[in-house]
Structure formats: structure tokens, C-alpha cells
Amino acid sequence: MKDVYILSVESSCDETSIAVVKNGHDCIALTILTQMDTHANYGGVVPEIASRMHTENITLVLEETLKKAGMTIDQMDAIAVAYKPGLMGSLLVGIEFAKTLAYVYNKPLIGVNHLIGHIYANNIEDRLEYPLLALVVSGGHTELAVMKDDYNFELLGSTLDDAIGEAFDKVARVLGYPYPGGPNIEKAAAKGENTYALPKPVDDDTYNFSYSGLKSHIINLVNTERMKGHELRKEDLACSFQTTAIDELSRKLDLALKNTNIKNVVIAGGVSANQFLRSEISKVCDRYNAKLYIPKMLYCTDNAAMIGAAAYPLYVKGDFKDFDLNAESHAGVCD
Ligand code: KG4
Ligand code: ZN
After folding, report:
1. pLDDT band per the 50, 70, 90 thresholds, residue 201
2. I need a surface site. Which of 40, 67, 74, 180 has the fewest CB within 10 A?
């Protein structure tokens, strides 16, 4: 089969990103323009500002990517875009941009679920083997699913309330660390110790997760200690939070490995950039002799290369979208 080049677009939150991906595995060129510094001024992503910045920057990001690839749009086989889940305004900028390119250059249009994109980030420079257990840990989602084959998912469990990334961000905020909180909690935790006794998120035998109780407990603890004028051991609290939050992932993954006997595991989403998570999850996999796929740091947080990787099996199946493709703010890996 001839090589397939997909031009992929990601704009679901606060990164404007475009990539050229060959045959679903090789990232030929990738540009990621993050708006993080702008949103840090507000302590979180401001949707209106995010979509305006996507609109301002997306053409430049395209030009930059094509320059890096040394290719033209005519040479592409398809245009792919993340169309769910995410911020409506942000998604729509990418979708309208991708549709316009597909129409003008007469290319098929592929719609990609952003979370599935995070999973396929593990297929870049690697080959996923099925069946696998996918642990999706991002700013908006915490899901554990069985993936039997390309695009064949069975959801085992998901968060009942907050996502793990959201909990990292909120805990960071109450401790006074800037947005995005996850990497700052990780840095603080590395200097602290697990000395605070915190409630376990969900102490049961389902595959569900819950992070709002843990988050609220910490917010209350911080406020109470501050009111009493007590000094807070921020680094210890960051470490205790990180340990408790990630223990929960390890426990549920352990249960799934035991019950399903599946031997491949994928971690996906922004929180998979966390080194403590990587090492804890890899210990769980070692216990079951399971192979662990970990995305390269560059492909952990939002990027268009993962969208191109996830678009490839859809291209092969001929699963294309019409020009009435719309954004969807809510979706899990199975939706
Ligand atoms: O996948 P992602 O880039 O965007 C979404 O699809 O949501 O994930 C962003 C989330 C944020 O909550 C961020 O704080 C978290 O990933 N994150 C981390 C780390 N790097 C990013 N959380 C913990 N440790 C990190 N090193
Ligand atoms: Zn993401």
C-alpha cells in the first residue's frame, strides 16, 4: 500500500496544533502553540480567549508545520480534526479550519475523538498490541477501558465526579501554584513527603474513580490550617495528594489486570506526563508481566500528532465525515 499522509488539527482546549503523520506511526512534522502563559494570568483556561487565540494562530501553525514537513497540502491524503470532547468554541475553530482545507483541496475529512487520540499517541514510533487496557488520565477525563482492537472499546470504569487532572489543577491552585497545576504539584511533591493522612478516593471493587472528595478534603484542610494560623507543609501536602491520587489508579489497574488477564497497558492523557505515575503504573504492570506503553513526553499533553495517529485506522476503513461535522463538548472514549 502506498504511504498515507494525514494532516491533523488539534484545538480542543488551549493548544493550537497541526501535524503531518505518515501511516499512523511516523510524525513527519508537528507544531504546538500553547496559550498556557496567557491563561495562567487567570488561573485557568478562559474559553472565549482560547477560541480567539486559536483563530489568530491556526494559519501560522499550518504554515510552520508544512514548512517543517517540506510538503504541500496537495500531497496529503486526508485532513483530520479533533471534534470531541473539549471546549465548544475551541473545537469549532479547528473543525471549520479542517473542513475548509478538505473542501478547497478536495480531501477526505476525518473526525477524531480527542481521548482516543491520547491513546493512539502510544502508536507513534511504536505498534500497539491488542487486547490492551487503556488508562486515560487527562484534565477532563479519568477512564479505564479495554481496547480489543482498533476502535473497539469496552469501558470498565470512569470518574464519578472530577477528573484526576482537574484535581491536580485545583489542589495546585489552593496551594498557590500557578496554572497548569499538574507539573507544579509534581515538582513540589518531589521535595516533600507523604505525611498527610488523606481519604482514599473510592475504596471499592468497581473500576470507577472519584477525585472530588480528595480535592475538597485538601481545600478544607488548607483553609482550616490557614484560619488557625498554622504553617502548611505545602510540599508534603502535594506529595500526599499525588500519592493518594495515583494509588487509586494503580489499585484499579491492578484489579483490571487481575480480572481480565490482559497483557498490554497504555497510559494516555496529560497526567501521564507525571513521572511518579509512570513509575507506579510500571510497577503494577511488572507484577502481571504486562507490557506498558508510555507516550513520549512530547505526545502526552495535547498535540496534533496523536490526532493523525488515531485518524489512520479511520482512513484505512474509509470512515470519513461530511461537511456537517459539528463539535461535541462531552464524550468519553466509547462515545
Ligand atoms: O490531556 P491534557 O493535555 O488536556 C486534556 O485533554 O485535558 O491534560 C491536561 C491535564 C491538566 O490537568 C494538567 O495539570 C495535567 O494534565 N498534567 C499533569 C502533568 N502534566 C500535565 N498532571 C500531573 N503531573 C504532570 N506532570
Ligand atoms: Zn487532552
Report:
1. confident
2. 74
Rounded (10°) CA dihedral 119, 273, 247, 203: -50
- Could you give the C-alpha distances from 203 to 109, 199, 221, 248, 252, in angstroms and in order? 44, 9, 21, 9, 10
Pocket test for ligand 1, best of 277, 301, 329 (most atoms within 8 A of CB): 301
Map grid coordinates 502548611 to a residue: 232
Report residues whose beta carbon is within 6 angstroms of any ligand 1 atom: 13, 118, 138-140, 165, 168-169, 180-183, 186, 269-271, 273-274, 301-302
Report the amino acid identity of residue 297.
Answer: M
Sign of CA dihedral 120, 122, 124, 127: negative
H/E stretch holding 5 reads strand 5-10
Ligand 1 atom with minimal separation from the 15 CA: 3
DSSP 178: P
Give the pLDDT confidence of 250-278 residue by residue, as tens digits.
Answer: 999 999 999 999 999 999 999 999 999 99
The C-alpha cell that represents 173 in the structure block: 491552585
Residue 61 scores a pLDDT above 80? yes
Ligand whose nearest atom lies closest to the CA of 14: 1
Residue 213: partners with Cβ closer than 8 Å, 6 or more residues away: 161, 199, 201
The whole-model pTM stands at 0.97
**For a substitution probing ligand 1, which of 112, 136, 138, 174 has the most ligand atoms within 8 Å of its CB?**
138
Could you give the residue ranges of the DSSP H alpha helices within 121-229? 164-174, 181-191, 212-227
pLDDT digits (tens, 9 = 90+) for 158-196: 999 999 999 999 999 999 999 989 999 999 999 999 999
